[in-house]
Specification:
Blueprint lengths: L2 E5 L3 H14 L11 H8 L9 E10 L2 E11 H7 L3 E9 L4 H17 L4 E4 L11 E4 L15 H9 L2 E12 L12 H14 L4 E3 L5 H16 L10 H11 L8 E6 L2 E10 L2 H4 L8 H10 L5 E9 L8 H15 L4 E8 L3 H9 L3 E12 L1
Helix pairs in contact: 6-11
């Protein structure tokens, strides 16, 4: 027998590709399976990514046995915006004794990238840079929150051994609301002073909730705001509207308008905060939604969610210094407490994002998970 890297072509290949993760994480109590319907849309190339990028999926087989998986992709939108010629790898899984398998998978990814005219390999991303970005390097004792990846501790070790260099780090903060006795009035006085200046300057009506019954217009308002507000980060690449829209639609079933706050100045949307119930607390019991009865298990588990994830804090750079970040966070905290949540996840934020990191630290947040994205020159 020998190790072969083979393309995913058939329905059976797609199931093998998806199911392999159960072998990798069988002893990991913090792993939450990716949902089969979402993975299936990628494997069948129906995901929004394929409107602006291309990708392939590969199985490592030892004889007939699957011993690893990987995806190779090119994000043409990101390359155009960054001036790169980079291919991405993602959907990466190998067993604990599988370094040689990892080498073969990355060798194959490098060759695929060269054949497509690329000069470096980056990852992991699956495949959008907002899907499972980076390998987890700190916080293995915690379960991931929504839109956050998870991996065994040997993946970053394998990547470093192979020769990858760190492209950037991102972190997730945890704020235990018991620290402020479940009352935002107990938040640091400095944050209240900053938020109060906004209201003194502009009066009431600065913050409103999302209008889910005006979905299309809200998407049109928030998509350019999202890209403009995060464009100052060195490694940020704007999201195509089709990707932003697809991610919003995927989240729509769990969106709570009380947790989606929009800041307006003179009637113009200049910032927003997106919070989501931490559905991962329920999805860990849903078996990836592989079977019809898994939906029942998910519905029952959703009643026990204790955390809320603060996913996006976006403010138009033209309005930095107004104190909108503090006001948005305080209003979000009020909503989270009112709804009975016990803790807030703040993820993911680049370590090069001074505003978000400073705000999280002031609120008593602490880093509980850390991720690294990697690059390799070809």
């Amino acid at each position: 027998m020998h190790l072969s890297i083979l393309p995913v072509r058939t329905w059976a290949d797609r199931r093998d590709f998806y199911n392999f993760a159960w072998r990798v994480y069988q002893d990991d109590p913090n792993w939450v399976p990716h949902l089969w319907p979402q993975r299936k849309s990628y494997l069948e190339r129906r995901a929004a990514f394929f409107h602006y990028g291309e990708g392939e999926f590969w199985l490592a087989r030892w004889g007939g046995e699957v011993v690893g998986t990987i995806g190779t992709a090119i994000d043409y939108s990101r390359n155009r915006n960054k001036g790169w010629r980079a291919a991405n790898f993602g959907f990466f899984e190998v067993l604990p004794d599988g370094y040689e398998v990892a080498v073969k998978l990355w060798d194959h990814a490098c060759q695929w990238a060269r054949e497509h005219g690329m000069t470096e390999l980056q990852g992991p991303y699956s495949f959008s840079t907002t899907d499972d970005p980076g390998f987890l390097v700190q916080g293995f004792e915690y379960a991931p929150a929504i839109m956050m990846g998870h991996n065994p501790p040997y993946y970053p070790e394998f990547a470093q051994r192979y020769g990858f260099e760190v492209l950037q780090e991102s972190v997730a903060y945890r704020i235990d609301l018991a620290r402020i006795n479940f009352d935002v009035n107990n938040a640091p006085a400095a944050i209240h002073r900053i938020a109060a200046r906004v209201l003194q300057r502009h009066g009431g009506g600065v913050i409103r909730h999302a209008r889910l019954d005006d979905w299309e217009q809200e998407i049109k308002r928030l998509h350019p705001l999202y890209n403009k507000s995060l464009a100052v980060l060195p490694e940020f690449s704007p999201l195509e509207e089709i990707e932003f829209r697809a991610q919003a639609m995927a989240l729509k079933p769990i969106l709570d308008p009380d947790l989606v706050l929009i800041a307006q100045i003179d009637g113009k949307a200049v910032g927003f905060a997106l919070g989501l119930p931490n559905i991962m607390e329920a999805l860990r019991y849903a078996n990836g939604l592989r079977h019809p009865w898994d939906y029942v298990r998910l519905a029952l588990a959703r009643r026990r969610i204790t955390g809320v994830s603060f996913k996006i804090l976006a403010v138009d750079p033209d309005y930095w210094g107004y104190g909108l970040e503090a006001l948005l966070f305080l209003e979000f905290g009020k909503a989270a407490i009112r709804k009975g949540y016990k803790w807030i996840d703040g993820s993911l934020t680049s370590q090069q994002n001074p505003q978000t990191n400073k705000l999280a630290a002031r609120m008593g947040g602490y880093i509980y998970r850390r991720y690294r994205e990697y690059r390799l020159s070809l």
